Amino acid sequence: MNQNCDLLTLRSVSKSYGTVPVLYDIDLAIRDGEFLTVLGPSGSGKTTVLRLIGGLEPLTSGEIRLDGQDISDMPINRRPFNTVFQDYALFPHLTVAGNVGYGLSVRHVARKEIAERVAKALELVQLGRFTERFPAQLSGGQRQRVALARALICQPRLVLLDEPLAALDLELRRQMQEFLKSIQREVKTTFLFVTHDQEEAIGMADRICVMEAGHIRQLGTPHELYYKPNCEFVARFFGENNLVAGTLGETRGEFRAIETALGRLVCSVADQPHLKAAATGARGFAAFRPEALHLAGDGDAGNRFSGAIADLAFAGSSTVATITAGGDAAQRLRLRFPSRMDGSVLRAGETVALSFAPHEGHLVLA
Amino acid sequence: MSSAGLGRPIAFRWSPLVTALAFALPVVFVLAPLAIFLVYSFFSVDQGQIVYAPTLANYLRFFTDPVFLPVFWRTIVLCLSVAAISILLAYPTAYFLTTLHGRWRYVLLMLLMVPLLMSYVIKIYAIRSILGLNGFLNKALVGLGIIAEPSTLFVFNMNAILLTLTLLLIPFAILPIFLALERIPQVLLSASHDLGASNLQTFLRITLPLSLPGVASAASFVFVLAIGDFLTPQMVGGISGFTFGRILYSQFGTAFNWPFGAALSVALAMVVIAAILAGERFGRNRGASL
Q1: Alpha carbon distance A331, A361 (integer Å)
Q2: Beta bridge pairs of residue A307
Q3: A13, A100, B4, B50: least CB-packed within 10 angstroms?
């Protein structure tokens, strides 16, 4: 499958329930064969996007195209997509085999072929021995895999997954994440995965589409979203981040200055022409990750300032220090550093010199 | 904390009494009368006096006398028909109710249940006036030119009993079917459509099988209520509409043969128990509950 070819495109899609708008003019292109995650807080419209594509709800305006063909009015049972529902929606009166084979049997596929394909699909999700069980006799993780096999058996062009891991406990969720990803690679089908859990999104997606309040805020690889968020919402929502408000200063090559309560900070604007072009004096944020912030050594160049350690939180492999810096306009910053067996080198209350390198900071427009 | 500490001994003191009552009530009001009937069925009557000596004569009479068994079977067939017709009418009604949204669904359900609030006898009288030879139904049919003269097809016979019982008992069929349909999660229907099924396929493969427990309870409700009824056959059955309930009634009333009446009730109770067990058996979801 060619990842650069668009499978499905949404063009200025809007959706309202009565007079309440939930999606505003969404444009989105899903590439063939990719694992695309739609990420957003609850109420952002991410599930609505999925329901519109699946055909569970009609569009208010706009169109959805599959291979260039408008499918906006195609009924749900004709669309070559299958859904893994949030609570699996397994049919309680059918066995695992009955559930998985359902999509084939309603299409009048021969019984023998159904049995073969069901066996294969269950083999794929490692449930070969459970054919004759009923859903109530399975664990959460097993039901999840039945739902996945049921969605995959009709060889859909696109698999829609509606927060399918939300009901599982943490350990099982991690396993299922890896499992989903490996299955997706094996069957080479396009997956559209909806979640509110950014860690889940980073771990699985080829690309992530961040949504908020009915708008798409940013679409890109996890790396792009993490290091080059294009707005304050994405910068705050996606992973832990330090944001310091200020006004944009001059551009020098791939870097640009910003005047903040911490003094003048210099951050990278590489590959982000809109930041280079923004007017001097525009409101913005310097953004840098907790792991980019260091205790300043004597030789450190770059952005230096001092701050007081307000709190230390041990988090296993790393320790996170909460720091107050910037005097009157106090900023709370987070500093993450590897934990040591013999205890932290820092003490709460201590004042320390801090720095981050210009190429590890970036700018976000307010 | 302290109020919970005070509350507990009181609840503790009362709970054995509540438990005892919960078991005592069914024992006193259900099991004991049934047991007395069972015992009576082995007695006999001699010149209006009950003879308290155990005998199987009543049962022998029930199985050998050419009168009783045919009426017994005919009554069972009648009540099965009532149950079947009730379900055929109640299922679409209940299904229609579940397609309504919001308040309308419950308003309509309440309206369908209103007949249950009316006196049984009044309803039968009302139906009698509809069914009679000069009743509303015949007049309407003649008036519309569908039939030339009043029909005797549903006047004081088995058909009249069938019609009346169905009319009276249909709310008992609608309710369990409605509840079973309403309990089916919408997402299962979405999942079925999503997997390519048409509306009809979704109904036949998902909705119908998942609502069968409700259908089974409805059938056993209606059957049991119909078979125990003697008043309806008495009032609309005329001479030809003779049911087992009427025989039973006459044994306790006019014939004053309590032991034989008790034996007939035991036979009827067996059928009722079988119907309830069958309803229970089919009412259970295959595999598991939702």
Answers
A1: 16
A2: A325, A352
A3: B4
SS3 A242: strand
Length of chain B: 290
For residue B11, what pLDDT is reported? 61
Q: What is the DSSP string of B15-48?
A: HHHHHHHHHHHHIIIIIHHHHHHHHHTT-EEETT
Q: What distance in Å separates the CA atoms of residue B138 and residue B141, rounded to the nearest whole number?
A: 5
Average pLDDT, chain A: 85
Rounded CA gap, B75 and B244, in Å? 6
Say yes or no for a CB contact (<8 Å) between A85 and B190.
Answer: yes
| Beta-ladder partners of A353 | A306
Query: B187 contacts in A (CB within 8 Å)?
Result: 85, 87, 89
**Cβ count near B150 (within 10 Å):** 16
- The domains found in chain A, sorted by start residue, are 6-227 (3.40.50.300), 240-365 (2.40.50.140)
What single string gives the DSSP state of each residue in B196-220? T--HHHHIIIIIHHHHHHHHHHHHH
Q: How far is B274 from chain A (nearest CA, A)?
A: 25
Mutate to test the interface with B, among A53, A74, A77, A109 (most CBs of B within 10 A): A77
Q: Report pLDDT digits (tens) over A299-356.
A: 666 788 888 888 888 888 888 888 888 766 677 888 888 887 776 677 778 888 888 8
Question: Looking at beta carbons, which residues of chain A come within 8 Å of B196?
Answer: 77-78, 103, 106-107, 154
Instruction: Provide the residue type at B126 as one letter.
Output: A
Mean pLDDT of the A103-125 span: 90
Only one residue has tokens 């055929």, namely: B88
- Domain chopping of chain B, boundaries: 61-283
Alpha-carbon torsion (B70, B71, B74, B75), positive or negative: negative
Interface confidence (ipTM) of the complex: 0.81
**Which tokens go with B284?**
């259970």
Consecutive H or E run containing A171: helix A170-187
- CATH hierarchy code of domain B61-283: 1.10.3720.10
Taking only the tens place, the pLDDT of each residue in B35-79 is 998 998 998 888 878 888 888 888 999 999 888 899 999 999 999
Neighbours of B54 (CB within 10 A): 10
Assess whether pLDDT exceeds 80 at residue B214.
yes
Share of chain B above pLDDT 90, in %: 39
**pTM score of the predicted model:** 0.80
